[in-house]
Design a protein that fits this description.
The protein has 488 residues and is of the alpha+beta class. It has a 10-stranded mixed beta barrel. Strands 11-12-13-16-14-15 form a 6-stranded antiparallel β-sheet. A 5-stranded parallel β-sheet has the order 1-5-6-7-8. Strand 23 and strand 24 form a beta hairpin. Helix 3 packs across helix 5. The N and C termini lie far apart (56 Å).
């Protein structure tokens, strides 16, 4: 099964919870009893609770011995049927105990070191994720990056995996709430976050799930997830119209993956959250302070999801500067605005003065996009200038840290010249990716001629078309080289 999925470039994630079924002969339970790996009550007896398997006990991840054991179980020769393309979702790890007080472990249960559960409850999920992360590292000899998803999290979780906002409901209020919830997590440092598309409980109608997809696809972590007793909700079950609309939203997300990846590189370097409130970039604009229904993606995109049923228009606020509708390229300025929306649109704006890298070719998985060319969206500010960046590595290993195998490229548009400069010029990272198109927004004239140059191509004449936007097609520059375009 895993082989069939990965042959198409996809990965698989399976759920692994912290509760262990109390069943004689089950190797994990027998190991935990023999090696003394379980949480105990105040009398020293192994704690028994009730969860999905029925009668269960809970591993004590505060014990280094337990963490080492747990990590060892992810070895490919011990995790039957697993491959390096299988990743892990740690669920129910608050921990959830169906028959416990407040649906969790009693506060007087005792962990390693004599700590009562009341003292360490909020850390339990983090300790499990740390152990899972270590297991994924060890199975590839610390070569490949793990992907771990966790329901419970705590300070430091951002070092190990992604989180989501928990068991939400299929209603418009919970769609609205997903925005400030993810903004709060992001500002707190838990930056790879998202919400269950369509709501975990109950059944969304076609309009709600469409608007939820459109909102979620501009949040860091994206997935559709629902309770087992809800109706099927794959994009194709709502009819051809909504299948096409959801497909359109998903394709826009895939096109922006180079931008998202660059933002997460910056997040690793500086802590800057990819999803952020408006006041993060406009701290002196007091109008932005209470806004919770729109947000930034990096500093270059502003998004206002449609979160009201039957909405035909949306009102929003744009901070200082020029802003361009990301899809029809109409120009806006600072202030309050109201625009019509249809089923296929939500307000998304590119900030004047920014350059956004995208990939426009349609693929089944992001892994199949690695050699695809880039389209740059150059949005000029009042001075006719713009800046941006692009980060590229192999997308899976730690060679970017250990061996410097990555490319960091700075883009600049100034004085009718668009330039790209590779920051780490001696990088051992190699790629065949190239620039297929440059889309310029806000150009006040139509160039009479265009010249390009790079090491591989030398000096070349380029062609452009249109006015707003003005599009330079197939300049052909390798992203691994410095290049320059002059507009005359």
């Amino acid at each position: 099964m895993i082989g069939n999925l990965t042959a198409k470039g996809r990965k698989m994630i399976t759920i692994i919870d912290p509760h262990i079924k109390r069943e004689s002969g089950y190797f994990l339970h027998e190991d935990a009893l023999r090696e003394d790996l379980y949480v105990k009550d105040k009398h020293g007896k192994v704690y028994e609770g009730w969860c999905w398997p029925g009668s269960s006990s809970y591993l004590d991840f505060f014990d280094p011995k337990t963490r080492n054991y747990w990590a060892s179980r992810f070895a490919l020769d011990k995790y039957e049927g697993s491959t390096l393309d299988l990743y892990t979702w740690n669920d129910m790890n608050e921990p959830s105990v169906f028959n416990g007080p407040e649906v969790t472990m009693p506060k007087d249960m005792v962990h390693f070191g004599g700590w009562e559960h009341r003292d360490v409850h909020n850390l339990y999920g983090l300790m499990q994720v740390m152990s899972t992360f270590q297991g994924h590292l060890l199975r590839s000899d610390k070569r490949l990056r793990p992907f771990i998803l966790s329901r419970a999290n705590f300070v430091g979780m951002q070092r190990y995996g992604a989180v989501w906002t928990g068991d939400n409901m299929a209603n418009w209020g919970h769609l609205k709430a997903s925005i400030p919830m993810c903004l709060g997590l992001s500002i707190a440092g838990i930056t790879h976050c998202g919400a269950d598309i369509g709501g975990f409980f109950h059944d969304p109608d076609a309009e709600l799930i469409l608007r939820w997809y459109q909102a979620a696809l501009f949040q860091p972590f994206v997935r559709n997830h629902a309770h087992i007793e809800t109706k099927r909700r794959e994009p194709w079950v709502f009819g051809d119209k909504y299948t096409a609309l959801i497909r359109s939203a998903v394709r826009r997300r895939y096109a922006l993956l180079p931008y998202w990846y660059t933002l997460f590189y910056q997040n690793e370097k500086t802590g800057a959250p990819p999803m952020r409130p408006l006041w993060y970039d406009f701290p002196e604009d007091t109008t932005t302070f209470p806004i919770q229904d729109q947000h930034l993606v990096g500093s270059a995109l502003l998004v206002h999801p449609v979160t009201d049923q039957g909405a035909s228009s949306v009102s929003f606020y744009l901070p200082e500067g020029i802003w361009y509708d990301f899809y029809n390229y109409k120009t806006y300025v600072n202030g309050h605005h109201t625009i019509p929306v249809d089923d296929d649109t939500i307000p998304v704006f590119q900030r004047g003065g920014s350059i956004i890298p995208t990939k426009q070719r349609i693929r089944r998985a992001s892994s199949l996009m690695r050699k695809d060319p880039y389209t740059l969206f150059v949005a000029l500010d009042q001075k006719g200038e713009a800046n941006g960046s692009l980060y590229i590595d192999d997308g899976e290993s730690y060679e970017y840290r250990k061996e410097g195998k990555f490319l960091e490229i700075i883009f600049q548009c100034k004085g009718n010249v668009i330039k790209a400069k590779v920051v780490n010029v001696n990088s051992p990272f190699q790629t065949v990716e190239w620039i297929e198109r440059v889309v310029i927004l806000g150009l006040t004239y139509k160039p009479s001629s265009i010249e390009g140059s790079s090491k591989s191509l030398g000096s070349v004449k380029l062609e452009g078309e249109g006015e707003h936007p003005f599009v330079i097609r197939k300049p052909g520059f390798l992203v691994s080289e410095d290049w320059e375009i002059k507009l005359h």
